[in-house]
């Protein structure tokens, strides 16, 4: 079956890319990245750091995976992102590496659907079969199997809106 890497993609020779993987135009794959078989990486995707991506994942354009956590205490320690199998990760999703404050890993399970603009912060454990709707997560959080996270915007004065975790709806999936 082979590997299909667009000529404009920048892929480290040290990256481990399995059979059947497609990497789209202008994507950047770092040296500590592992991508499982039959995964599709869209255009303009950045995957860096110690990031392991399972099999049959579909990653859409402008996704950012495995970059350092947005935590001022992070000092470049060796931490990681592990993404399971058959996930759909839509446009502009960000998933950051962990800090050293917990298990040193940000984890995404299997068969999840992460919708556009979702941010999965460092040290998350996001298990199996859940959609994540347009929101930013806090760090150091675990979400159980078969749960759906829906995020709503709260209106404040003069029609301004801001997101609030407390306004999120958690429901059985």
Overview of this protein structure:
With 173 residues, the protein is an all-beta fold. Residues 137-173 have low confidence and may be disordered. The strands form five sheets. Strands 1-4-7-10-13-16-19 form a seven-stranded parallel beta sheet, with no helix packed on it. A seven-stranded parallel beta sheet has the order 3-6-9-12-15-18-20, with no helix packed on it. The chain has a six-stranded parallel beta sheet with strand order 2-5-8-11-14-17, with no helix packed on it. Helix content is 0%, strand content 37%. It has strands spanning 4-5, 10-11, 16-17, 22-23, 28-29, 33-35, 40-41, 46-47, 50-53, 58-59, 64-67, 80-83, 88-89, 94-96, 105-108, 113-114, 119-120, 125-126, 131-132, 142-143, 147-150, 153-155, 161-163, 169-172. The chain contains no helices and 24 strands. Strand 22 and strand 23 (161-163) form a beta hairpin. The radius of gyration is 16 Å and the shape is globular.
